[in-house]
Amino acid sequence: MPEKMLAAMKLRKAVGAEMAEIPLPRPKADEVLLKIKACSICGTDKHIYNWDNWAQNRIKPPLVFGHECCGEVMEVGPAVKSIKVGDYITAETHIPCLHCFQCRTGNMHLCQNLSILGVDVDGIFAEYAVVPEVCCWKNDTALPVEIACIQEPFGNAVYTVMESNVGAKKVAVIGDGPTGAFACGVARAVGAVKIYNLGMIPFNLEICRKMGADVSVNVVEEKNYREKILDETNGGVDVVMDMAGNKNAVSDGFAILRRTGTFTAFGIAPAPFEFDMAQNIVFKGARVIGINGRKMFDTWYQLRNLLDSGKVDIRPVISHKFPFTDFLKAFETAISTTTPSAKVVLTM
Fold first, then answer.
1. Average pLDDT of the chain?
2. Which letter does DSSP use for residue 121 in this model?
3. Rounded CA separation 56/59 (Å)
4. CA–CA dist 289, 74 (Å, integer)
5. How confident is the model at residue 15, as a pLDDT?
6. Fewer Cβ within 10 Å of end Cβ, the chain: N or C?
7. Residue 297 lies in a domain
8. d(CA 197, CA 208)
């Protein structure tokens, strides 16, 4: 085992990231050491890289960031029971305390003392990483690494769609990023009868179409799209899944939701905004569901079934692949405002 490794780090309180050689981490009693096989860039990572207000208030450099990965177990701590050396795992990025009310009642993903891999503790943009045993999800050895490393964000969409009960319903997926595209694929697989996808980027809208969207709406270019959807659905869609989270997205979502419909919120707004609760929820009789991460581990079994059965093929969402040594080039691609991208994957 080497003594040092290459890692992508947030070394200072400023925009950007740096590649650095640092000591190999050692697993604690309840942790495993992973040799990373592949990892991918998430929206949270972009916040950290761009050093926006959220990152400035949350991140404490120096930090190895990143949380979406798969890898091979190289070493296990003495208290680890269910994972062994050689296992091929993907990391669940929510690290629960296992003792609070939520953890003890089947909601570890909403732990009161939750830590997040690559945000609150060192993450996985490195050649090796340590992960708690409770966060290890075993993969079939035949699962390609580029698929294995994006199961965590795919799980966000699976959780969102499954909580929304979309079977035999007309639905709208708001947002054309990776989670929006995943949601289109899951909604198609579990029986949505018509899927509207609202987004802003033609490149990404096309990926959502490949994943299962029936109708693509470019909210920048099209006019009167709300009225069109309301007319086509005779009063609004049954379910809205907001994967974007900004003020305009939420406004669009409630505008096209039928009375007594379901609004499922996954997207996170960059800042608080004014919202008419009476008009959008009370008078409409709307049901609102909040989604945070994935259920541990109900969602993981569901996503495995979807992948194993072939009901959902998530490969179209991977737009770019880079070797890990080209991390900075990969990140510039992921945050570019001129080069469109969806999921950017790095392989070792």
1. 97
2. B
3. 6
4. 40
5. 96
6. N
7. no
8. 7
Number of separate domains in the chain: 2
Average pLDDT for 233-262: 97
Q: Are residues 192 and 321 in the same domain?
A: no
Residue 47 annotated in active site: yes
- The answer to whether position 304 is within a domain reads no
Q: What domain range is 227 assigned to? A: 156-290
Q: Dump pLDDT digits (tens) for 315-335.
A: 999 999 999 999 999 999 999
Strand 136-138, strand 88-91: pairing: antiparallel
Say if residue 103 is in the same domain as residue 165. Answer: no
Separation of alpha carbons 190 and 176, rounded Å: 20
Q: Which one is catalytic: 47, 67, 109, 320?
A: 47
Question: pTM of the predicted model, to two decimals?
Answer: 0.96
2 burial via Cβ count (<10 Å: 0-12, 13-18, 19+): exposed
Per DSSP (E only), the strands in 77-110 are 88-91, 94-95
CA proximity to 182, closest of 169, 194, 195: 195
CATH number for position 284: 3.40.50.720
My answer on whether 124 and 168 are in the same domain is no
- Report angle CA 39, 41, 43 to the nearest 5 degrees: 145
Measured distance CA(143)–CA(127) in Å, rounded: 20
125 shares its domain with 166: no
Taking residue 283's Cβ as centre, other Cβ atoms within 10 Å add up to: 11
Q: Residue 271's pLDDT is what? A: 86
Whether 145 and 163 map to the same domain: the answer is no
What is the C-alpha to C-alpha distance for residues 23 and 5, in angstroms, rounded to an integer? 6
Q: With beta carbons less than 8 A apart as the criterion, state whether 319 and 295 touch.
A: no
Query: Which band of pLDDT confidence, cut at 50, 70 and 90, is reported for residue 1?
Result: confident
Q: Are residues 11 and 137 in the same domain?
A: yes
Average pLDDT over residues 32-42: 98
Contact in structure between 199 and 219 (CB atoms under 8 Å): yes
* Same domain, residue pair 128 and 180: no
Active site residue 44: yes
144/160 same-domain check: no
